[in-house]
Design brief:
There is one protein chain. The protein is α/β, with parallel strands linked by helices. The protein has two domains: about 140 residues, Alpha-Beta Complex (Aspartate Aminotransferase, domain 1); about 240 residues, Aspartate Aminotransferase, domain 2 (3-Layer(aba) Sandwich), CATH 3.40.640.10. The protein is built from 15 helices and 13 strands. The strands form three sheets. A seven-stranded mixed β-sheet has the order 3-9-8-7-6-4-5, with helices on both faces.
Protein backbone atom coordinates (compact mmCIF):
# COMPACT_ATOMS: atom_id res chain seq x y z
CA UNK A 1 0.00 0.00 0.00
CA UNK A 2 2.99 2.34 0.43
CA UNK A 3 3.50 2.13 -3.32
CA UNK A 4 -0.11 3.11 -4.00
CA UNK A 5 0.06 5.92 -1.45
CA UNK A 6 3.09 7.32 -3.24
CA UNK A 7 1.21 7.41 -6.51
CA UNK A 8 -1.80 9.04 -4.88
CA UNK A 9 0.43 11.79 -3.46
CA UNK A 10 1.71 12.49 -6.97
CA UNK A 11 -1.84 12.65 -8.31
CA UNK A 12 -2.91 14.98 -5.47
CA UNK A 13 0.01 17.27 -6.29
CA UNK A 14 -1.10 17.48 -9.92
CA UNK A 15 -4.65 18.27 -8.86
CA UNK A 16 -3.39 20.99 -6.51
CA UNK A 17 -1.70 22.72 -9.46
CA UNK A 18 -4.74 22.36 -11.75
CA UNK A 19 -2.74 19.96 -13.91
CA UNK A 20 -5.00 16.91 -13.86
CA UNK A 21 -5.87 15.69 -17.35
CA UNK A 22 -9.15 14.02 -18.18
CA UNK A 23 -10.50 12.12 -21.14
CA UNK A 24 -13.81 12.65 -22.86
CA UNK A 25 -15.48 9.90 -24.85
CA UNK A 26 -16.74 10.64 -28.35
CA UNK A 27 -19.79 8.63 -29.33
CA UNK A 28 -19.78 9.66 -33.00
CA UNK A 29 -17.16 10.02 -35.78
CA UNK A 30 -14.55 12.77 -35.67
CA UNK A 31 -16.24 15.92 -37.00
CA UNK A 32 -16.95 19.50 -35.90
CA UNK A 33 -20.32 18.42 -34.52
CA UNK A 34 -20.03 15.36 -32.32
CA UNK A 35 -21.81 13.64 -29.48
CA UNK A 36 -19.34 13.56 -26.59
CA UNK A 37 -20.11 11.76 -23.33
CA UNK A 38 -23.69 11.60 -24.60
CA UNK A 39 -23.98 15.34 -25.26
CA UNK A 40 -23.96 17.24 -28.59
CA UNK A 41 -20.86 19.46 -28.90
CA UNK A 42 -19.31 21.83 -31.43
CA UNK A 43 -15.65 20.80 -31.38
CA UNK A 44 -12.63 23.01 -31.95
CA UNK A 45 -10.03 20.53 -30.76
CA UNK A 46 -9.38 18.02 -33.54
CA UNK A 47 -6.31 17.97 -35.80
CA UNK A 48 -8.52 16.71 -38.65
CA UNK A 49 -7.74 19.94 -40.50
CA UNK A 50 -9.30 19.01 -43.85
CA UNK A 51 -12.27 17.14 -42.42
CA UNK A 52 -11.28 13.81 -43.98
CA UNK A 53 -11.55 11.54 -40.92
CA UNK A 54 -15.17 10.68 -41.73
CA UNK A 55 -15.12 11.50 -45.44
CA UNK A 56 -17.29 8.97 -47.33
CA UNK A 57 -14.55 8.19 -49.87
CA UNK A 58 -12.00 7.52 -47.15
CA UNK A 59 -14.42 5.41 -45.12
CA UNK A 60 -15.32 3.39 -48.21
CA UNK A 61 -11.62 2.85 -48.97
CA UNK A 62 -11.01 1.67 -45.43
CA UNK A 63 -13.85 -0.83 -45.78
CA UNK A 64 -12.49 -1.98 -49.14
CA UNK A 65 -8.99 -2.28 -47.64
CA UNK A 66 -10.26 -4.56 -44.88
CA UNK A 67 -11.98 -6.74 -47.47
CA UNK A 68 -8.80 -6.94 -49.56
CA UNK A 69 -6.21 -7.34 -46.80
CA UNK A 70 -8.05 -8.31 -43.62
CA UNK A 71 -7.99 -6.59 -40.24
CA UNK A 72 -4.33 -6.85 -39.26
CA UNK A 73 -0.86 -7.19 -40.76
CA UNK A 74 0.30 -10.11 -38.60
CA UNK A 75 3.95 -9.15 -38.16
CA UNK A 76 6.55 -6.45 -38.57
CA UNK A 77 7.35 -5.08 -42.02
CA UNK A 78 10.61 -7.05 -42.15
CA UNK A 79 8.99 -10.37 -41.25
CA UNK A 80 5.71 -10.76 -43.16
CA UNK A 81 3.65 -7.64 -42.42
CA UNK A 82 4.60 -5.48 -45.42
CA UNK A 83 1.57 -5.63 -47.70
CA UNK A 84 0.99 -4.41 -51.23
CA UNK A 85 -1.07 -1.58 -49.72
CA UNK A 86 1.94 -0.42 -47.68
CA UNK A 87 4.19 -0.59 -50.75
CA UNK A 88 1.76 1.40 -52.91
CA UNK A 89 1.35 4.03 -50.21
CA UNK A 90 5.11 4.46 -49.81
CA UNK A 91 5.55 4.81 -53.57
CA UNK A 92 2.80 7.42 -53.69
CA UNK A 93 4.24 9.40 -50.77
CA UNK A 94 7.73 9.38 -52.26
CA UNK A 95 6.35 10.69 -55.54
CA UNK A 96 4.37 13.36 -53.67
CA UNK A 97 7.48 14.75 -51.95
CA UNK A 98 9.95 14.10 -54.79
CA UNK A 99 9.90 17.74 -56.03
CA UNK A 100 11.53 18.72 -52.72
CA UNK A 101 13.89 15.81 -52.11
CA UNK A 102 16.67 14.17 -54.13
CA UNK A 103 16.25 10.47 -55.06
CA UNK A 104 13.22 10.33 -52.75
CA UNK A 105 11.94 7.21 -51.03
CA UNK A 106 9.37 6.94 -48.24
CA UNK A 107 8.79 4.71 -45.22
CA UNK A 108 5.41 4.28 -43.49
CA UNK A 109 5.10 4.11 -39.69
CA UNK A 110 2.27 3.28 -37.29
CA UNK A 111 2.45 6.72 -35.63
CA UNK A 112 4.22 10.03 -35.96
CA UNK A 113 5.80 9.49 -32.54
CA UNK A 114 7.44 6.29 -33.78
CA UNK A 115 8.58 7.98 -37.00
CA UNK A 116 10.36 10.73 -35.08
CA UNK A 117 12.00 8.26 -32.69
CA UNK A 118 13.14 6.23 -35.69
CA UNK A 119 14.65 9.13 -37.62
CA UNK A 120 16.67 10.57 -34.78
CA UNK A 121 17.90 7.28 -33.36
CA UNK A 122 18.95 6.06 -36.82
CA UNK A 123 20.71 9.24 -37.95
CA UNK A 124 22.02 9.96 -34.46
CA UNK A 125 23.38 6.48 -33.77
CA UNK A 126 26.87 7.85 -33.10
CA UNK A 127 28.34 9.40 -29.93
CA UNK A 128 30.31 11.83 -32.14
CA UNK A 129 27.09 13.18 -33.69
CA UNK A 130 25.16 16.16 -32.33
CA UNK A 131 21.42 16.84 -32.62
CA UNK A 132 20.51 20.54 -32.66
CA UNK A 133 16.95 20.62 -31.36
CA UNK A 134 14.48 23.53 -31.55
CA UNK A 135 13.40 24.71 -28.10
CA UNK A 136 9.68 24.20 -28.80
CA UNK A 137 9.95 20.83 -30.53
CA UNK A 138 7.24 18.22 -29.99
CA UNK A 139 7.74 15.64 -27.22
CA UNK A 140 8.39 12.91 -29.79
CA UNK A 141 11.38 14.80 -31.16
CA UNK A 142 12.67 15.49 -27.67
CA UNK A 143 12.37 11.81 -26.77
CA UNK A 144 13.99 10.74 -30.04
CA UNK A 145 16.97 12.98 -29.29
CA UNK A 146 17.22 11.57 -25.77
CA UNK A 147 17.21 8.00 -27.07
CA UNK A 148 19.85 8.65 -29.74
CA UNK A 149 23.52 8.08 -28.96
CA UNK A 150 24.27 11.58 -30.26
CA UNK A 151 24.81 14.58 -28.07
CA UNK A 152 22.01 17.14 -27.90
CA UNK A 153 22.07 20.91 -27.87
CA UNK A 154 18.94 23.09 -27.84
CA UNK A 155 18.68 26.34 -29.79
CA UNK A 156 16.14 29.10 -29.01
CA UNK A 157 12.80 29.13 -30.76
CA UNK A 158 13.10 30.35 -34.34
CA UNK A 159 16.58 31.80 -33.73
CA UNK A 160 18.57 31.18 -36.90
CA UNK A 161 21.52 33.28 -35.72
CA UNK A 162 21.86 31.32 -32.49
CA UNK A 163 21.74 28.05 -34.39
CA UNK A 164 24.39 29.28 -36.83
CA UNK A 165 26.74 30.03 -33.95
CA UNK A 166 26.20 26.56 -32.49
CA UNK A 167 26.75 24.83 -35.83
CA UNK A 168 29.91 26.85 -36.52
CA UNK A 169 31.35 25.97 -33.12
CA UNK A 170 30.53 22.26 -33.35
CA UNK A 171 33.21 19.69 -34.18
CA UNK A 172 30.67 16.87 -34.55
CA UNK A 173 31.20 14.39 -37.35
CA UNK A 174 27.43 14.32 -38.01
CA UNK A 175 25.18 17.32 -37.42
CA UNK A 176 21.40 16.96 -37.31
CA UNK A 177 19.10 19.97 -37.02
CA UNK A 178 15.55 19.02 -36.09
CA UNK A 179 12.47 21.19 -35.94
CA UNK A 180 8.70 21.16 -36.12
CA UNK A 181 7.38 22.99 -39.17
CA UNK A 182 4.15 24.29 -37.62
CA UNK A 183 4.50 24.42 -33.85
CA UNK A 184 1.63 22.55 -32.30
CA UNK A 185 0.88 24.91 -29.40
CA UNK A 186 1.57 28.28 -31.07
CA UNK A 187 0.65 27.68 -34.69
CA UNK A 188 3.67 29.58 -36.04
CA UNK A 189 5.94 28.33 -38.81
CA UNK A 190 9.65 27.58 -38.40
CA UNK A 191 12.07 29.65 -40.55
CA UNK A 192 12.74 26.66 -42.79
CA UNK A 193 14.53 28.47 -45.67
CA UNK A 194 17.05 29.94 -43.25
CA UNK A 195 17.50 26.64 -41.44
CA UNK A 196 18.10 24.77 -44.68
CA UNK A 197 20.65 27.33 -45.87
CA UNK A 198 22.56 26.81 -42.60
CA UNK A 199 22.41 23.04 -42.90
CA UNK A 200 23.74 23.10 -46.44
CA UNK A 201 26.54 25.48 -45.42
CA UNK A 202 27.59 23.34 -42.44
CA UNK A 203 26.95 19.89 -43.93
CA UNK A 204 24.06 19.09 -41.60
CA UNK A 205 20.82 17.16 -41.98
CA UNK A 206 17.60 19.12 -41.57
CA UNK A 207 14.84 16.94 -40.13
CA UNK A 208 11.43 18.62 -40.51
CA UNK A 209 8.45 17.26 -38.57
CA UNK A 210 5.52 18.50 -40.66
CA UNK A 211 2.80 16.94 -38.52
CA UNK A 212 0.58 20.03 -38.74
CA UNK A 213 1.55 21.10 -42.25
CA UNK A 214 1.18 18.04 -44.45
CA UNK A 215 -2.07 18.22 -46.42
CA UNK A 216 -2.67 21.83 -45.39
CA UNK A 217 0.35 23.87 -46.49
CA UNK A 218 1.47 24.31 -50.06
CA UNK A 219 -0.48 24.79 -53.27
CA UNK A 220 -0.98 21.04 -53.65
CA UNK A 221 -1.07 20.17 -49.94
CA UNK A 222 2.41 18.64 -49.98
CA UNK A 223 3.27 20.50 -46.81
CA UNK A 224 5.90 22.87 -45.51
CA UNK A 225 8.57 22.04 -48.08
CA UNK A 226 6.21 22.99 -50.90
CA UNK A 227 5.00 26.05 -48.98
CA UNK A 228 8.60 27.29 -48.61
CA UNK A 229 9.70 26.08 -52.07
CA UNK A 230 12.59 24.01 -50.70
CA UNK A 231 14.60 21.26 -52.35
CA UNK A 232 17.76 19.63 -51.01
CA UNK A 233 19.41 16.24 -50.41
CA UNK A 234 19.96 17.43 -46.81
CA UNK A 235 16.23 17.30 -46.06
CA UNK A 236 14.56 14.52 -44.07
CA UNK A 237 10.80 15.00 -44.05
CA UNK A 238 8.33 13.53 -41.54
CA UNK A 239 4.66 13.78 -42.49
CA UNK A 240 1.76 12.77 -40.27
CA UNK A 241 -1.20 10.89 -41.77
CA UNK A 242 -3.58 10.98 -38.81
CA UNK A 243 -4.21 14.72 -38.91
CA UNK A 244 -5.02 16.44 -42.22
CA UNK A 245 -4.98 13.08 -44.04
CA UNK A 246 -7.65 11.87 -41.64
CA UNK A 247 -6.58 8.25 -41.06
CA UNK A 248 -3.47 7.26 -39.09
CA UNK A 249 0.25 6.69 -39.11
CA UNK A 250 3.09 8.77 -40.51
CA UNK A 251 5.88 8.60 -43.05
CA UNK A 252 9.48 9.60 -43.50
CA UNK A 253 10.55 10.80 -46.95
CA UNK A 254 14.20 11.40 -47.75
CA UNK A 255 17.07 10.33 -49.99
CA UNK A 256 16.99 6.59 -50.67
CA UNK A 257 20.13 6.09 -48.56
CA UNK A 258 18.42 7.59 -45.50
CA UNK A 259 15.41 5.33 -45.93
CA UNK A 260 17.58 2.24 -46.37
CA UNK A 261 19.53 3.15 -43.22
CA UNK A 262 16.26 3.37 -41.30
CA UNK A 263 15.11 -0.02 -42.57
CA UNK A 264 18.36 -1.51 -41.30
CA UNK A 265 18.76 0.45 -38.04
CA UNK A 266 15.56 2.10 -36.85
CA UNK A 267 14.33 0.02 -33.92
CA UNK A 268 10.82 1.61 -33.84
CA UNK A 269 10.41 0.34 -37.42
CA UNK A 270 12.13 -3.04 -37.13
CA UNK A 271 10.61 -4.24 -33.88
CA UNK A 272 6.92 -3.41 -34.17
CA UNK A 273 3.96 -4.96 -35.96
CA UNK A 274 3.08 -3.13 -39.15
CA UNK A 275 -0.07 -1.00 -39.16
CA UNK A 276 -3.15 -2.69 -40.64
CA UNK A 277 -2.88 -2.58 -44.44
CA UNK A 278 -6.48 -1.34 -44.63
CA UNK A 279 -5.25 1.98 -43.20
CA UNK A 280 -2.67 2.29 -45.96
CA UNK A 281 -5.36 1.53 -48.55
CA UNK A 282 -7.62 4.22 -47.07
CA UNK A 283 -4.76 6.71 -47.12
CA UNK A 284 -4.47 6.35 -50.87
CA UNK A 285 -8.01 7.74 -51.08
CA UNK A 286 -7.05 10.56 -48.71
CA UNK A 287 -4.11 11.49 -50.93
CA UNK A 288 -6.41 11.54 -53.98
CA UNK A 289 -8.55 14.13 -52.20
CA UNK A 290 -5.60 16.18 -50.90
CA UNK A 291 -4.03 16.43 -54.36
CA UNK A 292 -7.28 17.03 -56.23
CA UNK A 293 -9.71 19.90 -56.67
CA UNK A 294 -11.61 19.04 -53.51
CA UNK A 295 -8.45 19.27 -51.43
CA UNK A 296 -7.67 22.68 -52.90
CA UNK A 297 -11.21 23.86 -52.14
CA UNK A 298 -10.99 22.61 -48.57
CA UNK A 299 -7.67 24.39 -48.01
CA UNK A 300 -9.14 27.61 -49.42
CA UNK A 301 -12.17 27.34 -47.11
CA UNK A 302 -9.90 26.70 -44.12
CA UNK A 303 -7.92 29.84 -44.98
CA UNK A 304 -11.15 31.84 -45.01
CA UNK A 305 -12.12 30.47 -41.59
CA UNK A 306 -8.72 31.43 -40.15
CA UNK A 307 -9.14 34.97 -41.47
CA UNK A 308 -12.70 35.12 -40.12
CA UNK A 309 -11.65 34.14 -36.60
CA UNK A 310 -8.91 36.77 -36.71
CA UNK A 311 -11.46 39.45 -37.63
CA UNK A 312 -14.14 38.39 -35.15
CA UNK A 313 -12.06 37.93 -32.01
CA UNK A 314 -11.86 41.16 -30.00
CA UNK A 315 -9.85 40.05 -26.98
CA UNK A 316 -8.41 42.60 -24.57
CA UNK A 317 -6.76 40.65 -21.75
CA UNK A 318 -6.09 37.20 -23.16
CA UNK A 319 -3.25 37.00 -25.65
CA UNK A 320 -3.31 35.64 -29.21
CA UNK A 321 0.08 34.71 -30.65
CA UNK A 322 0.23 35.46 -34.36
CA UNK A 323 -0.76 32.35 -36.31
CA UNK A 324 -1.81 31.96 -39.93
CA UNK A 325 -2.44 28.23 -39.55
CA UNK A 326 -5.37 26.14 -38.33
CA UNK A 327 -3.87 26.20 -34.82
CA UNK A 328 -5.15 29.33 -33.08
CA UNK A 329 -3.93 29.57 -29.46
CA UNK A 330 -5.45 31.89 -26.88
CA UNK A 331 -3.06 32.33 -23.97
CA UNK A 332 -4.91 32.70 -20.65
CA UNK A 333 -1.96 32.45 -18.25
CA UNK A 334 -2.88 30.65 -15.03
CA UNK A 335 -3.78 26.96 -15.09
CA UNK A 336 -6.95 27.32 -13.03
CA UNK A 337 -8.28 30.19 -15.15
CA UNK A 338 -7.66 28.27 -18.36
CA UNK A 339 -9.64 25.36 -16.92
CA UNK A 340 -12.49 27.67 -15.89
CA UNK A 341 -12.66 29.17 -19.38
CA UNK A 342 -12.72 25.75 -21.00
CA UNK A 343 -15.41 24.65 -18.55
CA UNK A 344 -17.59 27.69 -19.27
CA UNK A 345 -17.29 27.05 -23.00
CA UNK A 346 -18.18 23.41 -22.44
CA UNK A 347 -21.36 24.49 -20.67
CA UNK A 348 -22.30 26.29 -23.91
CA UNK A 349 -21.66 23.18 -26.00
CA UNK A 350 -18.24 24.33 -27.27
CA UNK A 351 -15.40 21.83 -26.92
CA UNK A 352 -12.07 23.67 -26.70
CA UNK A 353 -9.24 22.09 -24.68
CA UNK A 354 -7.22 23.85 -21.98
CA UNK A 355 -3.51 23.17 -22.49
CA UNK A 356 -1.27 23.43 -19.44
CA UNK A 357 2.31 22.64 -18.39
CA UNK A 358 4.36 20.65 -19.14
CA UNK A 359 2.94 20.84 -22.68
CA UNK A 360 3.44 24.61 -22.57
CA UNK A 361 5.65 26.77 -20.35
CA UNK A 362 4.46 27.67 -16.83
CA UNK A 363 2.31 30.79 -16.85
CA UNK A 364 1.20 30.28 -20.47
CA UNK A 365 -1.78 27.93 -20.04
CA UNK A 366 -4.05 28.39 -23.02
CA UNK A 367 -6.99 27.37 -25.09
CA UNK A 368 -5.85 25.52 -28.21
CA UNK A 369 -8.44 26.30 -30.86
CA UNK A 370 -8.11 24.24 -34.02
CA UNK A 371 -10.11 24.98 -37.13
CA UNK A 372 -11.21 22.42 -39.69
CA UNK A 373 -12.36 22.67 -43.28
CA UNK A 374 -15.60 21.01 -42.18
CA UNK A 375 -16.42 23.97 -39.90
CA UNK A 376 -18.83 26.56 -41.24
CA UNK A 377 -18.45 30.32 -41.01
CA UNK A 378 -21.36 30.26 -38.56
CA UNK A 379 -19.46 27.80 -36.34
CA UNK A 380 -16.44 30.10 -36.18
CA UNK A 381 -18.54 33.19 -35.57
CA UNK A 382 -20.29 31.39 -32.70
CA UNK A 383 -16.95 30.54 -31.08
CA UNK A 384 -15.59 34.06 -31.46
CA UNK A 385 -18.73 35.61 -29.94
CA UNK A 386 -18.60 33.20 -27.01
CA UNK A 387 -14.93 33.97 -26.32
CA UNK A 388 -15.41 37.74 -26.56
CA UNK A 389 -18.34 37.63 -24.15
CA UNK A 390 -16.65 35.24 -21.76
CA UNK A 391 -13.48 37.32 -21.47
CA UNK A 392 -15.54 40.42 -20.69
CA UNK A 393 -17.66 38.61 -18.09
CA UNK A 394 -14.70 36.99 -16.34
CA UNK A 395 -12.78 40.26 -16.20
CA UNK A 396 -15.83 42.06 -14.77
CA UNK A 397 -16.68 39.45 -12.15
CA UNK A 398 -13.19 38.08 -11.48
CA UNK A 399 -14.43 34.50 -11.94
Amino acid sequence: MDLIAGLERQLDALAGQSLTRRRRTADTPCAPRQVVDGRPMLAFCSNDYLGLAAHPRVVAALREGAELYGAGSGASHLVSGHSRAHALLEERLAALESPHLVDAKALYFCTGYMANLAVLTALGNDPDAVIFSEALNHASLIDGARLARAGVTVYPHGDVAALEAKLAASKATTKIVVTDSVFSMDGDLAPLPGLLALCERHGAWLVVDDAHGFGVLGENGRGALEHCKLRSPNLVYVGTLGKAAGVGGAFVAAHAAVIELMIQRARPYIYTTAAPPALAHALLASLDIIEGEEGAARRAHLARLIALLDRELKLQRWQRPVSHTAIQPIVIGANDEALRVASRLHEQGLWVPAIRPPTVAPGTARLRVTLCAAHTEEDVAQLAAALNKLEHEMERTGT
